[in-house]
Amino acid sequence: MAVELSNKSACIIPPCPLVTSCLTGSFSFFFPKATRSLRRWCAASNIFSLVVATCVSFVLFWRQTTTHSIQQYLWARIPKSDFCLKIGLLIDPLTLVMSILVTTVGLSVMVYSDSYMCHDQGYARFYAYLSLFVASMLGLVFSPNMIQIYVFWELVGMCSYLLIGFWFARSSAANACQKAFVTNRIGDFGLLLGLLGIYWITGSFDIYELSDRFIELTSGGIVNPIFANTIALLLFLGPIAKSAQFPLHVWLPDAMEGPTPISALIHAATMVAAGIFFLARIFDLISTLPLAMSTISWVGGVTTLSGATLALAQKDLKRGLAYSTMSQLGYMVLASGIGASQSALFHLITHAYSKALSFLGSGSVIHSMEKVVGYSPDRSQNIFFMGGLRKCMPITGITFLSGTLSLCGIPPLACFWSKDQIITESWLNSPYLGLIASGTAGLTAFYTSRIYLLTFEGDFRANQINYIEPYTSSPSEYVTHSWGRARLDLLTKRTGNNLTSVDIEREKFTEVANFATLPIFKGDRSYEGTIQYYSELNLSHPQESNFCMVLPLIILATPTLLGGLIGIDSTQKGYDLNFLLDWLISIPSFFEASKYFEKLAEVLISSIPSLSLSLIGLSISFKVYGQFDKIFDIESNEKLKREGIVNTFFIYVRDWSMSRGYIDYFYKIYFVRGVILISKLILHFDQWIIDGLINGAGALNLFGGESIRHAKSGRISQYIFGLIIGTIFTSQIFLICCS
């Protein structure tokens, strides 16, 4: 009975952040002045509610390791003839593991945001959106049926729209949130069709019930295999968009326009994790369909490789991490497609903590860089303006390095164990998928270590004027403020015509740093001219972030370093229906330490091939980017010689990466312009044909009525005269025709 009461306490996990979000949002809407004065209390209440949810999640998870039970608690029913919808909670190992992931990462992001967003005018609004985002993901995780999953699925998408476009006055942020919203509508429409199809086949929305019925009907040959695979692929269309799989991945890099804490939450535990969670939830259903499974695995493989190649030459720190997320999500989808759902979810968890650590570390870097180079994201997020930050930001540098090595797949860090499982399963399933997974591991080690080396090693380059020109693209000629973009040349009008280009560049840096008279978006946040903060902008080098931003980095470094050791023993367990149950059981005891270390050595020996590729990628990256005086000769158009196969290869790789694989260009030419052309044709058809017929009929009646009105004078003599004339005219025509 105690276990039952404890499991029922799961009903307070999603409402905790939901209630505080509603209260914070309502309070800030109805009492804006009071909210501004009490905004730190609003943040504290949101953090406390998530602490409660986290504690309950850990308690239930601990009990789950001993009971291994699956329970549902249903509180309401919506009956209508033979249709009955049950609303409640589903508590199983998958639910509790995801609940811990969402609450712990969300709590770290909330604590981090208190310092990161402290000067922003939308501070309380940000926390309201953040709590709603976490509550929506928790509701999705605990949903026992497809209707609840779809409702919270849409809420997660809505929250991502609000947070990506948090600084909606910036045109780039407004466009980014609209792009994410529209792209996800494509996937959500396919998901809706799939849900309707699965209900038409099984007559149920309950997850376990519809899975059993679907397996029974498909194995018995009652359902057409083509139709069954179509339904499965329609369901998969939702995770394609939500988890940024090719070809609906285009929204993910632009999502970096939101605040950096939101980038960490989206890429670690909410938005993109929702798609992988959904695949794990319906894995029993799709695992009986070989065609659907093959399609899923190849979509994941293509996404894995394309994401890695697109990240090879990115200059924006956050965008490089975004493409890294895309590539790692491809690993998870690939694993789901080949039947390794346990490995997919294992990699989701290890990657979540590593990527949250990387993104929060990048936010710490950007936060400090803005005090040196100004408020333009094209400067503060450009890794070629950084360098040597480990010396002045040691905690951020060390924690970021741990996240980097984890993503590279270096033992004993977390992502090594999960990625090695996926690579091994890929080789067993298909040599082509194994080759893609192994090759991407080397590319991942290359571009992630490249980001670290350019950011934290070498010498600080922002104050070296010679490096400014080759890496300052046209967008960086703008500084963004709350009502649009202002050209930097307007700020330097009074510099005179007798200055050299170096003086002008230095003057631009000085003007940007001291441009404190207008409400400015400080890279990732808006300021209204806080004098105390502007006094810090005369720094020549970045400084370490404060305690509230550093503490989450230290906390997230722990699961990044040790989290992967929990799941090692699960590689021999197989993939049964409750694929997380074995993982929970496999937590080693003290008395089994020797056996556990034997297993550890066995896994390390079997992972030598994939580990070798990762080490090769690390070595190449260090060889290329470890020589900081030659970095710019490799990356710059102006200094790169175009003769030679190697140099030509570097040019094409850089152009491919910076142009996003030309996929956005392709979409703009063939889809966006096509839709606009069709819309214009429909508009003209509506204006000239539909409206033309209606307006023409109305005009004809109007002119006809006016002409008749003028002909009718009301005099009987005129009417008789007209009747006689008409009669004579008609009779004459009749006589002519008869003769």
From TrEMBL:
<keyword id="KW-0521">NADP</keyword>
<dbReference type="InterPro" id="IPR018393">
    <property type="entry name" value="NADHpl_OxRdtase_5_subgr"/>
</dbReference>
<feature type="transmembrane region" description="Helical">
    <location>
        <begin position="12"/>
        <end position="31"/>
    </location>
</feature>
<feature type="transmembrane region" description="Helical">
    <location>
        <begin position="392"/>
        <end position="412"/>
    </location>
</feature>
<feature type="transmembrane region" description="Helical">
    <location>
        <begin position="149"/>
        <end position="169"/>
    </location>
</feature>
<dbReference type="Pfam" id="PF01010">
    <property type="entry name" value="Proton_antipo_C"/>
</dbReference>
<feature type="transmembrane region" description="Helical">
    <location>
        <begin position="719"/>
        <end position="736"/>
    </location>
</feature>
<comment type="similarity">
    <text>Belongs to the complex I subunit 5 family.</text>
</comment>
<feature type="transmembrane region" description="Helical">
    <location>
        <begin position="43"/>
        <end position="62"/>
    </location>
</feature>
<feature type="transmembrane region" description="Helical">
    <location>
        <begin position="547"/>
        <end position="568"/>
    </location>
</feature>
<dbReference type="InterPro" id="IPR003945">
    <property type="entry name" value="NU5C-like"/>
</dbReference>
<feature type="domain" description="NADH:ubiquinone/plastoquinone oxidoreductase chloroplast chain 5 C-terminal">
    <location>
        <begin position="450"/>
        <end position="686"/>
    </location>
</feature>
<keyword id="KW-0520">NAD</keyword>
<keyword id="KW-1278">Translocase</keyword>
<dbReference type="GO" id="GO:0003954">
    <property type="term" value="F:NADH dehydrogenase activity"/>
</dbReference>
<dbReference type="GO" id="GO:0042773">
    <property type="term" value="P:ATP synthesis coupled electron transport"/>
</dbReference>
<keyword id="KW-1133">Transmembrane helix</keyword>
<dbReference type="InterPro" id="IPR001516">
    <property type="entry name" value="Proton_antipo_N"/>
</dbReference>
<feature type="transmembrane region" description="Helical">
    <location>
        <begin position="295"/>
        <end position="314"/>
    </location>
</feature>
<keyword id="KW-0812">Transmembrane</keyword>
<keyword id="KW-0874">Quinone</keyword>
<feature type="transmembrane region" description="Helical">
    <location>
        <begin position="189"/>
        <end position="210"/>
    </location>
</feature>
<dbReference type="Pfam" id="PF00662">
    <property type="entry name" value="Proton_antipo_N"/>
</dbReference>
<feature type="domain" description="NADH-Ubiquinone oxidoreductase (complex I) chain 5 N-terminal">
    <location>
        <begin position="80"/>
        <end position="127"/>
    </location>
</feature>
<feature type="domain" description="NADH:quinone oxidoreductase/Mrp antiporter transmembrane">
    <location>
        <begin position="143"/>
        <end position="443"/>
    </location>
</feature>
<comment type="subunit">
    <text>NDH is composed of at least 16 different subunits, 5 of which are encoded in the nucleus.</text>
</comment>
<keyword id="KW-0813">Transport</keyword>
<protein>
    <recommendedName>
        <fullName>NAD(P)H-quinone oxidoreductase subunit 5, chloroplastic</fullName>
        <ecNumber>7.1.1.-</ecNumber>
    </recommendedName>
</protein>
<dbReference type="GO" id="GO:0015990">
    <property type="term" value="P:electron transport coupled proton transport"/>
</dbReference>
<keyword id="KW-0934">Plastid</keyword>
<feature type="transmembrane region" description="Helical">
    <location>
        <begin position="222"/>
        <end position="241"/>
    </location>
</feature>
<feature type="transmembrane region" description="Helical">
    <location>
        <begin position="124"/>
        <end position="142"/>
    </location>
</feature>
<keyword id="KW-0618">Plastoquinone</keyword>
<feature type="transmembrane region" description="Helical">
    <location>
        <begin position="83"/>
        <end position="112"/>
    </location>
</feature>
<keyword id="KW-0793">Thylakoid</keyword>
<feature type="transmembrane region" description="Helical">
    <location>
        <begin position="603"/>
        <end position="622"/>
    </location>
</feature>
<feature type="transmembrane region" description="Helical">
    <location>
        <begin position="261"/>
        <end position="283"/>
    </location>
</feature>
<dbReference type="InterPro" id="IPR001750">
    <property type="entry name" value="ND/Mrp_TM"/>
</dbReference>
<dbReference type="GO" id="GO:0008137">
    <property type="term" value="F:NADH dehydrogenase (ubiquinone) activity"/>
</dbReference>
<feature type="transmembrane region" description="Helical">
    <location>
        <begin position="432"/>
        <end position="453"/>
    </location>
</feature>
<dbReference type="GO" id="GO:0048038">
    <property type="term" value="F:quinone binding"/>
</dbReference>
<comment type="function">
    <text>NDH shuttles electrons from NAD(P)H:plastoquinone, via FMN and iron-sulfur (Fe-S) centers, to quinones in the photosynthetic chain and possibly in a chloroplast respiratory chain. The immediate electron acceptor for the enzyme in this species is believed to be plastoquinone. Couples the redox reaction to proton translocation, and thus conserves the redox energy in a proton gradient.</text>
</comment>
